Amino acid sequence: MFRRTQTTADDSPVSVNDPKPAGKGRPTPKRRDAEGRRRQPVNAPQNRKEAYKQLRERQANDRVKAREGMLRGDERYFPARDRGPARKFARDWVDSRRLPSQYFLPFSLLILLLTWIPFPEAVRGQVYLAVITVGWPLMMIGVLLTSVWVSWKVKKTAAEKFPGDNVKGVGFYAAMRALQIRKLRFPPPAVLPGGRPVPPKK
């Protein structure tokens, strides 16, 4: 008499791999994969110590870069006192000549060494007399005359070669360079004594 009630529900098993109808339609990523995608390299300093360390590293790199540029003769890295055609002319003018004033420091060292050498009593007085009363005054007079001549000559020639440039101080600049030992001059010489260019370093 009683009929079995027919159900419309599908009794077939549901595959565990089928996505949920109300879900995102894709599998949920693992936590470590999601964190790895979000993780980005952070360069900002975490504290004052780290910021100071990064600042010192940047300053050290800038100094190295500037020194390499100066050694190459790139005027972009020169201090303001070394820039300009007049200053370059002054450097080349001094570097292309052997001037008495460039021997000021070696001669001073020689005089100092002579005063330290334990000469015999009979000779010591004569050496000191020759050094103090003859050698030192002659050296100072030679340096002074050379410096005045270099300053006047370089400033006069620079004013003729560069009439539109400011040559104020270029004579003193040349005289101070002429007092330095050639190998210690900076920026380094671009010409050899006689005017030939310095060969590039290999």
How would you sum up this structure, described in words?
The protein is mainly alpha-helical and 202 residues long. Among the domains are: 48-77; 85-184. It is built from 6 helices and no strands. It has helices spanning 31-38, 48-72, 85-95, 104-116, 121-161, 170-178. Helix 3 packs antiparallel against helix 5.
Which terms would index this structure?
202 residues, mainly alpha, flat, DUF3043 domain-containing protein, transmembrane helix
Cα radius of gyration in angstroms? 40 Å
What string, H for helix and E for strand, traces the elements in order?
HHHHHH
Shape: flat
Uncertain ranges: 5-12
Q: What is the mean predicted local confidence, pLDDT?
A: 79
Please count the helical segments.
6
Helix coverage percent: 40-55%
Largest sheet: none
* Content-based structural category: mainly alpha
Strand content: under 5%
- Alpha-carbon distance between the two ends: 113 Å
The count of DSSP E runs of length 2 or more, i.e. the number of strands, is 0
Biased composition (Basic and acidic residues): 47-66
Transmembrane segments: 103-119, 125-152
Keywords: Membrane, Transmembrane, Transmembrane helix
Organism: Streptosporangium carneum
Tell me briefly what this model is.
Helices cover 53% and strands 0% of the residues.
